[in-house]
C-alpha cells in the first residue's frame, strides 16, 4: 500500500502489511475531522486516544465527535466507559492492543486520533509497569489536596519531576497525585519509568502531528469554549455534580464550573478560566508531542499527499 512509502522515516520495522496511522496534536487543532477524512479514504475506522472522551457522561466539555461525525466513520473508545469505572493508561494499552488485533483482521489501515500523548505512547511504544499504588500515600496526598488545594502539590511535583511537570495536565489532581505517589514510594520520578526499551508492535506506525500558528490555535480554543457554553456545558456540569468526587471530572471545563456552582467564582470568570486552562493544556500537549521525533508535522489536507507519495 502507498502508506508504507513513508516508513523509512520511522523507527519501526515493517512486520506485516498492517499500518496504524496516528493523528496527534493539541486540542482544537482539527484531529477529529482529519481522522474521519482518512478513515473514509481507506474505508476503515477511528480509534480514539483522548483520555476524556472514553467517558459516556462527559460529552460537551470533552468536545466529543458529534453524532454526524460518529456516523461518518466507525469510532472506538468513544463513550466506552463510565466515569464510575477506574480506567488507567495501562488498561487502555491492554484493551487497545486487543482491539487493534481484531481490527487488523478486517482492515489494512486503522486510524488513531487524540491529544493524550501518554495514551498514544502506550499503544505505539508500550508503557512501563508503574509501582502499585500505596493506599497510605494516596490517602495522605488526597487529604493534602482537600486541605491545601492543588497548587502546593503542583509545586512539589515541579521539584520532584520537572520533566513530567512540563508535560502533564497539572490541573488534573489525579495525574499530579499519581506522579507524587510514585516518587514518594520509589524515590524515582514517574518520568523515569517511561525510558525503557520501546516494545515493538506487530504493525507499522506512522505518526502525524497537526499544528498551526499559536494565535490561530488559541482563537479556535476560545471559540470552542463559547460554543460549548452555548450547547449546554453548564447544564452538563450541573447534572454531574453528584459524581464530582470521581477523578474523571477533575479536569478542565468541569472543575472551573464546579467552583462556579460552589459560589467560589462568577460565571464570566469561570468561562475565562476554562479558556485559559485549555490554552495552557494545549501548550503542554505541544511540548509533549514535539519531543517525539517520529511525528511528521503537517496540516490536515497534506496528510494524504504525504502518505501516497
Number of domain units: 3
Poorly predicted ranges (pLDDT <50, ≥5 residues)?
1-15
The CATH level-2 architecture of the largest domain is identified as 3-Layer(aba) Sandwich
| Helix content percent band | 40-55%
Categorize the overall geometry.
globular
Number of strands: 6
Distance from first to last alpha carbon: 11 Å
Strand order of the largest sheet: 3-2-4-1-5-6
In the CATH scheme, the class of the largest domain would be: Alpha Beta
Structural overview:
The protein is α/β, with parallel strands linked by helices. The chain folds into 3 domains: 16-128 and 200-213 and 293-308, P-loop containing nucleotide triphosphate hydrolases (Rossmann fold); 135-193, Histone, subunit A, CATH 1.10.20; 216-283, Crystal structure of tRNA isopentenylpyrophosphate transferase (bh2366) domain (Helix Hairpins), CATH 1.10.287.890. It has 13 helices and 6 strands. It has helices at residues 31-42, 67-72, 89-103, 117-124, 135-148, 150-160, 162-167, 173-186, 214-231, 233-239, 255-261, 267-290, 303-308; strands at residues 19-24, 46-48, 75-76, 109-113, 204-210, 295-298. A 6-stranded parallel beta sheet has the order 3-2-4-1-5-6, sandwiched between helices. Helix 2 (67-72) links the parallel strand 2 and strand 3 (75-76). The radius of gyration is 19 Å and the shape is globular. Residues 1-15 have low confidence and may be disordered.
Describe the SSE topology.
Layout: E1 19-24, H1 31-42, E2 46-48, H2 67-72, E3 75-76, H3 89-103, E4 109-113, H4 117-124, H5 135-148, H6 150-160, H7 162-167, H8 173-186, E5 204-210, H9 214-231, H10 233-239, H11 255-261, H12 267-290, E6 295-298, H13 303-308
Parallel strand pairs: 1-4, 1-5, 2-3, 2-4, 5-6
Helix pairs in contact: 3-4, 5-6, 5-8, 6-8, 9-12, 11-12
Amino acid at each position: 500500500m502507498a502508506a508504507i512509502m513513508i516508513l523509512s522515516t520511522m523507527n519501526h520495522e515493517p512486520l506485516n502489511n498492517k499500518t496504524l496511522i496516528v493523528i496527534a496534536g493539541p486540542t482544537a487543532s482539527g484531529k477529529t475531522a482529519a481522522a474521519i477524512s482518512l478513515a473514509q479514504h481507506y474505508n476503515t475506522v477511528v480509534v480514539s486516544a483522548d483520555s476524556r472522551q472514553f467517558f459516556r457522561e462527559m460529552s460537551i466539555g470533552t468536545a466529543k465527535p458529534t453524532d454526524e461525525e460518529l456516523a461518518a466513520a466507525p469510532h472506538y473508545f468513544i463513550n466506552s466507559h463510565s466515569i464510575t469505572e477506574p480506567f488507567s493508561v495501562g488498561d487502555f494499552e491492554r484493551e487497545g492492543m486487543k482491539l487493534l488485533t481484531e481490527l487488523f483482521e478486517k482492515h489494512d489501515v486503522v486510524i488513531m486520533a487524540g491529544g493524550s500523548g501518554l495514551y498514544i505512547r502506550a499503544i505505539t511504544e508500550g508503557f512501563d509497569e508503574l509501582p502499585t499504588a500505596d493506599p497510605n500515600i494516596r490517602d495522605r496526598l488526597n487529604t493534602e489536596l482537600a486541605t491545601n488545594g492543588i497548587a502546593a502539590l503542583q509545586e512539589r511535583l515541579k521539584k520532584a519531576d520537572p520533566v513530567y511537570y512540563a508535560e502533564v495536565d497539572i490541573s488534573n489532581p489525579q495525574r499530579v497525585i499519581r506522579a507524587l505517589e510514585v516518587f514518594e514510594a520509589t524515590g524515582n520520578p514517574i518520568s523515569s519509568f517511561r525510558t525503557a526499551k520501546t516494545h515493538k508492535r506487530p504493525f507499522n506506525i506512522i505518526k502525524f502531528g497537526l499544528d498551526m500558528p499559536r494565535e490561530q490555535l488559541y482563537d479556535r480554543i476560545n471559540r470552542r469554549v463559547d460554543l460549548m457554553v452555548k450547547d449546554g456545558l453548564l447544564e452538563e456540569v450541573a447534572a454531574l455534580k453528584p459524581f464530582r468526587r470521581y477523578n474523571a471530572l477533575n479536569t478542565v471545563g468541569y472543575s472551573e464550573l464546579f467552583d462556579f456552582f460552589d459560589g467560589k467564582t462568577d460565571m464570566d470568570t469561570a468561562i475565562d478560566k476554562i479558556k485559559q486552562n485549555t490554552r495552557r493544556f494545549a501548550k503542554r500537549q505541544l511540548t509533549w508531542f514535539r519531543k517525539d521525533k517520529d511525528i511528521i508535522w503537517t496540516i490536515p489536507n497534506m496528510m494524504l499527499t504525504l502518505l501516497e507519495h
